Amino acid sequence: MSAFTRRKFLQTTLLGGLASPWLGQGSAFGQAITTGTLPASYEGVSDNEILLGTSAAFSGPSRGLGIELYRGAQAYFEQVNERGGVRGRRIGLKLYDDGYQPVPSVQNTMELLLSDQVFALFGYVGTPTVTRVLPILKKFQEENVYMFFPFTGAQPQREPPYGEFAFNLRASYREETAGLVENFLGIGRRRIAVFYQADAYGRSGWAGVREALGAHGEQIVGEATYTRGAQYSGSMRQQVEILGRADPDAVICIGAYGACAAFLRDAIDLGLEEPIANLSFVGSENLLQLIVDSVEDSERYSRWLVNSQVVPSYEDESIPVVGEYGELMSRYDPKVPDPLHQPDYVPFEKSFVSLEGFVNARMLVEILDRLGDSPTRAGLEEAVFTIRDFDLGIGEPVSFSEQRRQGMQRLYYTVVDQDRFVPLDDWQARFG
Q1: Residue 146 and residue 121 in contact, taking contact as beta carbons nearer than 8 Å
Q2: Domain 173-309+412-431 is classified in which CATH homologous superfamily?
């Protein structure tokens, strides 16, 4: 598979070629791609269950994202199931690990659609994986297969030709990067550099920064990239040196927690002491934990962090959904099932990622309930569009329509105080 280019692999996937056994002409995958149909005998719904399908990173350097997103969602699903499910049907989750890599994500998705015949896709993690799955959903559009609330703010699932096959709850990366740029410019930090993952995710964030700066007559003053899968143990000194020569006032990072933590560590060690911002996807707690566990004076490093979030602080229990989240996470303490369980990974009691998973699950259950007593895939889109100014308990009304497939837009900003993330209320006082 490594010999294939991105384009060749997508062409092979969508045309039912012979890249691997599951793409063979005689396989169920090959037949499904040729006909553009899925098995009609079952749609992921039985008398007592609605089955959802997930492919996410449960292993590798970004495993914390998949694990925490799942744990938050499962905390809510467990309560729903304990109370009898959605109109008598429990919520089931079929999980596969893709390690945050596109090819396994495509393979897993076809397994979910053909073998498991899930009702809908839910809880996917990452732009490079989601962007490779979207063409499959377009191919099977007559089967009404939708992806709900992926953990990515990228544009492909928000605009043609694939936007109609996905529903997003979180704010987009364009909104996150624009918010960071606006706040930095507002305190006079105009020379903004970008550190980003060299793939669809990184480029999506890079484009957002460029667009936001361009609206103010500014431009990116320096940029450096890294390869997806980079770990904290690796060096980012070269990237820091590249950006240091640009003399930035701030750096916006578009990456995963291992690489972004390494960049923060090396930036401060090399004297690049300027605000270093991350998008919500980074996995804030995982990033901070790497710093705290590896340096003696963690405050020297974390004082420069400012992370954008798409959910509020999980410590603000004045927000109804936050209080419910904390109670159910404590009550159920969900674990990733075997064989995906990672014994050396210590989950967080609370995190922004698991709170997002919780909110996603809460929204999806409301949609499933609106399908009535006889849920079908064909009714999903109409059910979603009945969500208008819905109170999710998060302090922002949620609405969907044919022209609005993203439910929320609000952003939150956090900094580190005593090795924990807290809301940032005054940019000028902190970074002016």
Answers
A1: yes
A2: Response regulator (3.40.50.2300)
Q: For residue 213, give the 3-state DSSP assignment.
A: helix
Residue type, 100: Y
- For the chain, the structural domain boundaries read 36-171+319-385, 173-309+412-431
Domains 36-171+319-385 and 173-309+412-431 share a fold: yes
> In CATH, what number does 36-171+319-385 get?
3.40.50.2300
| Residue 30 pLDDT grade (very low, low, confident, very high; cuts 50, 70, 90) | low
Contact 140, 37 (CB under 8 A): yes
* Residue pLDDT, tens place only, 386-425: 999 999 999 999 999 999 999 999 999 999 999 999 999 9
Q: How far apart are CA 244 and CA 188, in angstroms?
A: 19
Confidence of residue 6 (pLDDT cuts 50, 70, 90): very low
Tell me the mean pLDDT in the region 31-57. Answer: 80
Q: Contact at 8 Å (CB) between 148 and 120?
A: yes
Tokens of 38: 């899925």
Question: pTM (2 decimals)?
Answer: 0.91
Residues forming a β-bridge with 404: 401
3-class DSSP state of 182: helix
Give dist(CA 349, CA 26) in Å, integer.
47
Q: In what order do the strands lie in the sheet with 90-97?
A: 90-97, 49-56, 120-122, 147-148, 166-167
Tens-place pLDDT, residues 169-213: 999 999 999 999 999 999 999 999 999 999 999 999 999 999 999
| Separation in Å, CA 208 to CA 43, 174, 177, 321, 414 | 38, 5, 6, 30, 20
Report the alpha-carbon angle 364-80-389, nearest 5: 35
Give bridge partners of residue 336 from the DSSP assignment. Answer: none
Edge-to-edge order in the sheet of strand 305-309: 223-226, 192-197, 250-254, 276-278, 305-309, 412-416, 421-423
| pLDDT confidence of residue 272 | 97
- The single-letter code of the amino acid at 218 is E
The per-residue pLDDT for 33 is 55
Q: Which two tokens stand for residue 112?
A: 């979910």
What does the mean pLDDT of the chain come to? Answer: 92
